[in-house]
Task: inverse folding
């Protein structure tokens, strides 16, 4: 064994909010020692100095690279270290008699690097995907708060005086919000309560819409291919982009991405029985996005409707069919993540100028394509990123241009 190999070390880090615990192992797997550092910029540099140079460090296993260990992971990658995300067993899976402490968890991380087991490449949480993640958190909280406002308002309306209750019951969501927000703020009692809820509801709706519009602009600039996936709206595209991270190339295959999203069935065979069971793991937000795309396609895409009918004839239930659809959609999304700027077909930005140049109204287009004029408007403004419909609309406009010419 060369002198260089004898100098090699394996590192493991147990990350927490205020401190990070480092464990170092030598080339034989013997513990060199454990050390604790502050979870700040100085602590990151001190921890890297204790490991030594990147040339003598085989790898650093960090628990929680997407949470408490995110800052340390970014700094170690900047310094040139090979960083792995490790999974330390939870309490239920911990071996009997094994101690639970920060140094013990750091040592487990280091030994996983030494054994090359349960390692994965950390997700890049910088750039536009990190901005999307932050925007999604803010939007989700606003939507949840809005739901709470609506429930509180409706519960108050049930017990309101008859004249007020009869004027508010049966209104649509939008009309109810408008009616509540315009109630006299100088009044007292239930009118003041409902008016306050209505104005807060309206404010939160505007904030949520503004955040969603910003998310859409980020996606249009960095991953238009995701928006072009049939049935994939802004929120679903953002969830899938965040799941892929800023470095989707770390996922070696579409099967790996499907497993990440929890749509890859797991083997559950025994003896002569060969079967698969439902995967309840993975990124549940991305899983929900795939579900939403599948449900949308089942309602509006004829090819999907035909597939559902075929599966039904084969004896598959609706839930089983949706699971199959989610697996197929994950394959399509994976291709979009690997080639985020590659969009096939016409751009929505060219549709409105072409229509206006021909002097055709939205209603005329809707009648010609057998859709509502609002759907045409959504396509022209980028709110409907449906590649199939965009191609159909663009082909119809070109046919009209040939007729005029």
Result:
């Amino acid at each position: 064994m060369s002198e260089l190999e004898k100098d090699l070390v394996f590192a493991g880090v147990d990350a927490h909010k205020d401190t990070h615990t480092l464990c170092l192992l030598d080339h034989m797997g013997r513990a060199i020692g454990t050390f604790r550092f502050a979870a700040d910029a100085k602590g990151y540099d001190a921890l890297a100095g204790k490991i030594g140079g990147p040339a003598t460090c085989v790898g650093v296993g960090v628990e929680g690279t997407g949470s408490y260990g995110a800052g340390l992971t970014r700094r170690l990658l900047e310094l040139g270290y090979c960083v792995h995300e490790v999974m330390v067993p939870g309490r239920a899976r911990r071996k009997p008699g094994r101690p639970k402490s920060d140094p013990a968890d750091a040592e487990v991380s280091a030994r996983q690097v030494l054994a090359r087991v349960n390692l994965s490449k950390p997700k890049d949480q910088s750039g536009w995907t990190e901005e999307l993640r932050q925007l999604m958190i803010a939007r989700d909280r606003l939507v949840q708060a809005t739901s709470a406002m609506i429930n509180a308002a409706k519960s108050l309306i049930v017990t309101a005086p008859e004249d007020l209750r009869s004027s508010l019951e049966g209104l649509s969501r939008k009309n109810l919000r408008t009616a509540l927000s315009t109630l006299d703020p100088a009044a007292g009692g239930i009118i003041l309560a409902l008016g306050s809820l209505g104005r807060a509801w309206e404010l939160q709706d505007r904030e949520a819409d503004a955040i969603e519009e910003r998310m859409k602009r980020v996606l249009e600039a960095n991953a238009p291919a995701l928006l072009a996936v049939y049935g994939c709206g802004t929120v679903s595209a953002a969830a899938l982009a965040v799941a892929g991270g800023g470095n989707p190339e770390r996922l070696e295959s579409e099967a790996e991405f499907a497993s990440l999203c929890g749509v890859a069935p797991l083997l559950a065979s025994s003896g002569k029985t060969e079967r698969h069971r439902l995967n309840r793991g993975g990124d549940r937000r991305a899983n929900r996005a795939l579900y939403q795309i599948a449900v949308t396609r089942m309602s509006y895409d004829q090819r999907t409707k035909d597939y559902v009918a075929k599966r039904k004839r084969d004896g598959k239930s609706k839930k089983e069919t949706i699971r199959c659809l989610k697996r197929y959609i994950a394959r399509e999304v994976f291709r979009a993540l690997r080639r985020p700027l590659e969009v096939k077909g016409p751009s929505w930005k060219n549709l409105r100028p072409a229509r206006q140049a021909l002097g055709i109204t939205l209603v005329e287009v809707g009648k010609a394509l057998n859709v509502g004029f609002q759907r045409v408007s959504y396509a022209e403004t980028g709110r409907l990123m449906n590649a199939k419909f965009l191609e159909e609309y663009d082909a119809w406009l070109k046919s009209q241009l040939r007729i005029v010419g």
